[in-house]
Amino acid sequence: MQRSDILDPAYFHKVVDCQWACPAHTPVPEYIRLIAQGRYDEAYMVNWLSNVFPGVLGRTCDRPCEPACRRGRVEEKNAAKPEAVAICRLKRVAADNTSEELRTLFPKPAARNGKRVACVGAGPASLTVARDLATQGYAVTVFDGEAKAGGFIRTQIPRFRLPESVIDEECGHVLNLGVELRAGERIASMKALLAEGYDAVFVGCGAPRGRDLHLPGRQEAGAKIRIGIDWLASVSFGHVDKVEPRVIVLGGGNTAMDCCRSARRLGAQSVTVAVRSGYAQMKASPWEKEDAEHEGIPILDFHVPLAFEHEDNGKLTGMRFKKAQTGEEVVIPCDEVLIAVGQENAFPWIERDAGIAFGEDGLPQLDRVTFQSSLPQVFFGGDAAFGPKNIITAVAHGHEAAVSMDRHLHGESVAKRPPPHVNLLSQKMGIHEWSYDNAIANDARYKVPWAKAEKALASIKVEVELGFDAATAFKEAQRCLNCDVQTVFSDKQCIECDACVDICPMDSITFVENGEEAELRQRLKAPALNLEQALYVSGDLKTGRVMVKDEDVCLHCGLCAERCPTGAWDMQKFLLVTTKAGAACRDHETRRAMA
Ligand SMILES: Cc1cc2nc3c(=O)[nH]c(=O)nc-3n(C[C@H](O)[C@H](O)[C@H](O)COP(=O)(O)OP(=O)(O)OC[C@H]3O[C@@H](n4cnc5c(N)ncnc54)[C@H](O)[C@@H]3O)c2cc1C
Ligand code: SF4
Ligand code: SF4
User: Fold this and answer.
1) Which of ligand 3's atoms lies nearest the C-alpha of 559?
2) Which of 41, 112, 403, 528 is the most exposed place for a label (fewest CB within 10 A)?
3) pLDDT, tens digit, for every residue of 469-495?
């Protein structure tokens, strides 16, 4: 195998499993350590610079980082139920405990650079673009048909999961940067918007239309059949405050989970979720399913809806299903149905001759990296780009689109993407002392406390999760393995004494004859079977062997570096900050001309 190129920013980035998996690449272990130290404002700002909505995401994120977390992997052999660090809920601790000083840490609105940008929609994607560009001097105007900013964060996610005060606060942090919000203004024509002379336009209008189910009885019993996302918006605005006694929710995604839990709070006596797929294949996150079941809501899988049953006068009486596995037909009585079977994209306000190409799927034709459309000054992001996803993906799109817009408006190629900023710093404080806590114990994941069921179910506005207190947050933070503190090996200093091999508790290190990757993986002290994780291969050592370290199960405990008599191993903190709009994303010549 070739010697590993540890100067490639992607090499050590992949070792930080959570940061690699996060669409916005938030430096997770960095903020977890700050939380353990009680430095909540700093932890908040590490998040804010990366994911813009720490308080919102600390309650609602889809958490792609947690299935990737090393803790869940390395505990497999040691603990009965290996569990990831509660990365998402730790983020909330930072947001819940910020001080008055936080206000002073936000950037000030920058001096204007003469360029105007319009964002359509005030959801997380547009607000990220606004945040990234307003701090660089752009005059940003955000349009939204609703009365307040936030997009689906405000209109769809129920208050028992996300209080309105958190949305107000975090949208406020963006708008306070001198961003103009034109609330209550729905853009009806892209051509008219372009005619207003904006230098660039970002389309972050989301994926607004909920899919309908055109089955027999849909028309006749329509009075008590609602599209789930429209219904949730009505609940959020207070237009709907009660439901019929027996409710069926169709669908298996997170919208279905929010519908069923909201219906329960609005007084339904029985709520049933019916989904076509198997339970395991449902789109809802595992914890959303658990939360619904915890509240006494049954989930019936493999139930294919066939018809809405009704009386002659159109009164809904039930739903007919076919059980996919047996073919048996069943009727489940109900008085109201909420359809939550997915969303469609809709761009009725973009004229098809406006110069923006659309595919057969109704989605704009975009460059997947730059988010640029076929009209060079128009960019898309969030659910409007490639269909419905989640908040953190919308934020990640917003950052990348802002880089593209910044480069485009400086006359630079959007295809050229500057690499992220990286930094490696030794954590050595003494012979056996590191700047981070490297004692590793097999602690089980700590549970986030919940409000009492009677209180939580009594009102749609009572927040269910209470968040970690500081003491529990500290203990949960200690479960983090500090995967960003990298084991850095120096060939020249190694005398091949094998001391690190003997001390490593995970048998991660082997000194061995080099070979092809597939067979080398088998020849290691502990075979390296997880092909998704890299092998760290040194250059040739004096005996002709190489050092090979399996990155998969390393605990970052630093014992190898403590034991090494020559300092060939060092524990170095790797900090990766993604490229954002601004001088750092521009070509050198442009930066020099501006200086
Ligand atoms: C019920 C439900 C629950 C969800 N729960 C979660 C969750 O817990 N965690 C998670 O990560 N994701 C969740 N999501 C998904 C998440 O809300 C979205 O992926 C995310 O908000 C998309 O962000 P966005 O910026 O692309 O657009 P949106 O948030 O959809 O915002 C788009 C905005 O554009 C406005 N708009 C549309 N057209 C126009 C126009 N022509 N002119 C002006 N304004 C316009 C709309 O009014 C809207 O405010 C949920 C979605 C639903 C439906
Ligand atoms: S142990 Fe910590 S640094 Fe490692 S993946 Fe999990 S949260 Fe991230
Ligand atoms: S830090 Fe060193 S000793 Fe600890 S698990 Fe990793 S390779 Fe082994």
Assistant:
1) 3
2) 112
3) 999 999 999 999 999 999 999 999 999
Q: Work out the angle at residue 360's Cα, subtended by the Cα atoms of residues 359 and 365, and round it to the nearest 5 degrees.
A: 10
Q: Using one digit for the tens of pLDDT, what is the confidence trace for 299-337?
A: 999 999 999 999 999 999 999 999 999 999 999 999 999
pLDDT above 60 (res 415):
yes
φ, ψ (nearest 5 deg) of residue 501: -60, -45
Distance, CA 206 to ligand 1 centroid (Å)? 5
Confidence of residue 239 (pLDDT cuts 50, 70, 90): confident
205 lines ligand 1 (CB under 6 A): yes
Whole-number Å distance between alpha carbons of 36 and 435: 13
Ligand approaching nearest to the C-alpha of 553: 3
Identity at 548, one-letter amino acid code: V
CB atoms within 10 A of CB 301: 18
Give whole-number Cα distances, 332 to 14, 253, 326, in Å: 49, 21, 17
Residue 120 beta carbon below 6 angstroms from any ligand 1 atom:
yes
pLDDT at 77 over 70: no
The pLDDT assigned to 436 comes to 82
Using 50, 70 and 90 to split pLDDT, how confident is the model at 78?
Answer: low
DSSP 8-state symbol, 444: P
Q: What tokens does 230 get?
A: 């429209």
| 29 CA closest ligand 2 atom index | 3
389 Cβ below 6 A of ligand 1: yes
Find the 556 Cα to ligand 3 centroid distance in Å: 5
* CA–CA gap between residue 352 and residue 424 (Å, rounded): 50
φ/ψ bin of 63: left (φ > 0), alpha (ψ from -120 to 50), beta (otherwise): left
CA 106 from chain centre, in angstroms, equals 22
- What is each CA distance from 138 to 134, 382, 507, in whole angstroms? 5, 21, 53
Are the C-beta atoms of 519 and 444 separated by less than 8 Å?
A: no
Q: Which residues line ligand 2 (CB under 6 A)?
A: 16-18, 28-29, 69-71, 85, 87, 480-483
**Residues in contact with ligand 3 (CB, 6 Å cut-off):** 487, 503-506, 508-509, 549, 554-560
For atom 6 of ligand 3, the residue with the nearest CA is 554
277 φ/ψ sector (left φ>0, alpha ψ -120 to 50, else beta)? beta
Answer whether residue 297 shows pLDDT above 60: yes
Backbone angles phi, psi at 5, to 5 degrees: -95, 85
Q: Is 496 left (phi over 0), alpha (psi -120 to 50) or beta?
A: left
What is the pLDDT at residue 557? 93
The pTM of this model reads: 0.89
The tokens describing 495, both together, are 């005398």
Q: What is the per-residue pLDDT for 445?
A: 87
